[in-house]
Write a structure and sequence with these properties.
Order of helices and strands: HEHEHHEHEHEHEHEEEHEH
Helix content: 25-40%
Oligomer: single chain
Largest sheet: 6 strands, parallel
Strand content: 15-25%
InterPro entries: Alpha/beta_knot_MTases, rRNA_Methyltransferase, SpoU_MeTrfase, tRNA_m1G_MTases_N
Bound molecules: S-adenosylmethionine
Organism: Streptomyces coelicoflavus
GO molecular function, one term: RNA methyltransferase activity
Protein name: TrmH family RNA methyltransferase
CATH class of the largest domain: Alpha Beta
Keywords: Methyltransferase, Transferase
Distance between the termini: 45 Å
Length: about 260
């Protein structure tokens, strides 16, 4: 006999919802588990489908997923997400402690740069940058300004990879130590530079570029190659090129 499908979300969902972030979909949950997130509750309206995905794509966390996933009705699943995800999986994860994140950011010597997004506006860009930072093994992503880097839309864009790097919001005056390489089309061509592992790689906002405060803190202005008449690149693609340059000039550890 199979277990009956719960008509509503489990009580644990309501208990943890206030202090946790939503992981929307199988891949976000898979990444969060891989990088050590504390996940008190996870639901799906298709447990067999989710475990088949785990067999295929994530055998390393299949056991944890099998222990965590509670099957609920389609309506119960839909009631806890803004928009149903094709994998019909949702989970709650405890946000890592700010104090621990700030310690990691301040720790020196640093083995990989910190990405600084100066007053970003676009939640999707912020999520994409967190995903990049996780992929390149950056120490963290710091935002200045009003955007919350743990906003549900940013977490969705980050595909659960907020747990693979430090993600915090700070004032420019409170940025961690290290030389600031600020990306700006008027800067020195990046192709002639080696970016040090302890660098803060700073990027301006989509609308107005680097703020006066960030410019005042910058040690170097760095430009990405761009032909005349093109004004600028998208923020997340600028971060991608810069992290790639850091990795290609000796920064990131090689994947075996
Ligand atoms: C969309 S751009 C900002 C455009 C904005 N209108 C401006 O006045 O700078 C967002 C950020 O991406 C980075 N960026 C974009 N293109 C770049 C380039 N060619 N060289 C260096 N940084 C660039 C900069 O940090 C910039 O502040």
């Amino acid at each position: 006999m199979t277990d009956p499908v719960a008509p509503g979300p489990p009580a644990a969902w309501h208990l943890h919802a206030g202090r946790c972030v939503l992981l929307d979909g199988f891949h976000a949950l898979k990444h969060a588990l891989r990088f050590g997130a504390e996940v008190p509750v996870a639901v799906t309206s298709d447990r067999a489908g989710a475990l088949a995905l785990a067999d295929e794509l994530a055998p390393d966390v299949r056991g944890e997923l099998a222990g965590l996933l509670t099957e609920v009705s389609r309506e119960a699943y839909a009631s806890v997400v803004a928009r149903p995800h094709p994998t019909a999986v949702a989970a709650l994860a405890v946000r890592p402690s700010r104090a621990a994140g700030l310690d990691t950011l301040a720790h020196t010597p640093r083995r990989a740069p910190v990405v600084v997004l100066d007053q970003p506006r676009n939640l999707g860009n912020a999520g994409a940058v967190i995903r990049l930072a996780a992929g390149f093994g950056a120490t963290g992503v710091v935002t200045t300004g009003t955007l919350d880097p743990w906003h549900p839309t940013v977490v969705r864009g980050g595909a659960g990879l907020h747990f693979a790097t430090v993600v915090e919001r700070l004032e420019v005056a409170g940025l961690p130590p290290g030389p600031v390489f600020a990306l700006d089309p008027e800067g020195e061509d990046i192709r002639g530079l080696k970016l040090p592992d302890d660098a803060l790689l700073a990027f301006g906002s989509e609308r107005s570029g680097l703020s006066p405060e960030l410019r005042a803190r910058a040690d170097h202005l760095v430009a990405l190659p761009m032909r005349p008449q093109v004004s600028s690149y998208n923020l997340a693609t600028s971060v991608a090129m810069t992290l790639f340059h850091w990795s290609a000039t000796g920064g990131a550890p090689r994947v075996p």
